[in-house]
């Protein structure tokens, strides 16, 4: 007699050749085995024939009505920071070049402004204001990264632990 | 594009806010989700609630879904867990199969003897499934839906593939015994 597992393997179509030949022999030789196999086979086919159940006709509509559609996720401030930084730097670069071109072109004009003074103005601008602004932006970027990478994870963990 | 790729594609569309993708995903999986829940709970209203709840959980946890995994495995695990929780909540099971089976018999009174015999077996198997544990019913349902492989069924039910195979065999054996009992009782009642 085959075990239940072996009989189910036959029904599932994954029995070995050896088991299958044993099964064929038993079917012809043992009425008891045949009756038992027929019983399991009937259950197997009954289960395979079971219908897929259908929910109510309003299932999808009801569900859609309950869904709070997730808005398109905007990029967070921190993920946009790199682009903002690069954009600001580009603006400063363009302004600096623009000012430089403006003062150099003026220096060749009829108005007699000493060239040394123009260069001093540009130098002052680039060394004082621009450097200060760049430093300030860098500081903001560093603080934002520190907040995202260190402070936020720390407080999130703390919140999870406390809850 | 295979079924899983279609699902992943729909999930990506949902993530970008495409409302029609929600409907498509629901329509693709509602019948199977409902069937799994219904077989565990034996109650249409509860099963519908559980299936809806499972979809809501899916939409709420899209960020935690790994696109490398199979969607249906993840989804059926949610349905299975939600149905089990509901089953625990419903200590008293609502059995509406009696009334439905009677209605079924009446509405099919003009069918041939063979059809009637088939219908009787269908009703008996549904009754027998109700008498099994939620675990057994789930194993059998997932196996015969033919949507998941043995490994995936194992993943859904939190067991190893080998254990899942053994559990499916045992569940079918128990179902066969239940069927035998039920059909014997029916014959006795006719006599």
UniProtKB/TrEMBL annotation, chain B:
Any one GO biological process: DNA-templated transcription initiation
Residue span, RNA polymerase sigma-70 region domain: 25-91
One GO molecular-function entry: sigma factor activity
CDD domains cross-referenced by the UniProt entry: Sigma70_r4
Domain RNA polymerase sigma factor 70 region 4 type: 124-175
Keywords: DNA-binding, Sigma factor, Transcription, Transcription regulation
InterPro entries reported for this sequence: RNA_pol_sigma-70-like (IPR039425), RNA_pol_sigma-70_dom (IPR014284), RNA_pol_sigma70_ECF_CS (IPR000838), RNA_pol_sigma70_r2 (IPR007627), RNA_pol_sigma70_r4_t2 (IPR013249), RNA_pol_sigma_r2 (IPR013325), RNA_pol_sigma_r3/r4-like (IPR013324), WH-like_DNA-bd_sf (IPR036388)
PANTHER family in alphabetical order: RNA POLYMERASE ECF-TYPE SIGMA FACTO, RNA POLYMERASE SIGMA FACTOR
Family per record: Belongs to the sigma-70 factor family. ECF subfamily.
NCBIfam families noted in UniProt: sigma70-ECF (TIGR02937)
Protein name, per record: RNA polymerase sigma factor
Organism field: Emticicia aquatilis
């Amino acid at each position: 007699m085959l075990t239940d597992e072996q009989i189910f393997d036959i029904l599932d179509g994954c029995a070995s050749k050896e088991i299958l030949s044993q099964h064929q022999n038993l079917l012809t030789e043992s009425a008891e085995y045949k009756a038992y196999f027929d019983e399991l086979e009937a259950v197997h086919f009954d289960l395979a024939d079971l219908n897929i159940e259908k929910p109510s006709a309003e299932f999808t509509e009801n569900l859609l009505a309950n869904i709070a559609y997730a808005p398109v996720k905007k990029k967070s401030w921190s993920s946009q920071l790199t682009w903002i930084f690069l954009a600001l730097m580009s603006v400063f670069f363009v302004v600096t070049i623009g000012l430089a071109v403006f003062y150099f072109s003026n220096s060749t004009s009829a108005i007699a402004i000493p060239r040394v003074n123009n260069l001093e103005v540009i130098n002052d601008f680039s060394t004082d204001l621009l450097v200060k602004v760049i430093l300030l932006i860098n500081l903001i970027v560093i603080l934002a990264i520190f907040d995202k990478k260190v402070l936020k994870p720390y407080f999130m963990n703390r919140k999870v632990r406390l809850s | 594009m295979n079924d899983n790729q279609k699902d992943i594609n729909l999930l990506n569309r949902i993530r970008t806010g495409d409302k029609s993708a929600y409907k498509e995903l629901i329509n693709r999986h509602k019948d199977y989700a409902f069937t799994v829940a219904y077989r565990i709970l034996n109650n249409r209203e509860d099963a519908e609630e559980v299936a809806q709840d499972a979809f809501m959980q899916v939409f709420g946890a899209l960020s935690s879904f790994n696109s490398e995994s199979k969607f249906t495995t993840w989804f059926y695990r949610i349905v299975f867990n939600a149905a089990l929780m509901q089953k625990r909540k419903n200590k008293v099971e609502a059995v509406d199969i009696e009334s439905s089976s009677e209605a079924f018999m009446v509405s099919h009174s003009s069918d041939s003897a063979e059809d009637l015999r088939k219908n009787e077996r269908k009703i008996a198997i549904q009754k027998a499934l109700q008498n099994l544990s939620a675990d057994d019913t789930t194993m059998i349902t997932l196996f015969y839906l033919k949507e998941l492989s043995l490994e995936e069924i194992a993943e859904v039910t939190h067991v190893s593939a080998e254990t899942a195979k053994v559990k499916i065999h045992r569940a079918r054996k128990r179902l066969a015994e239940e069927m035998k009992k039920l059909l014997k009782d029916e014959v006795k009642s006719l006599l």
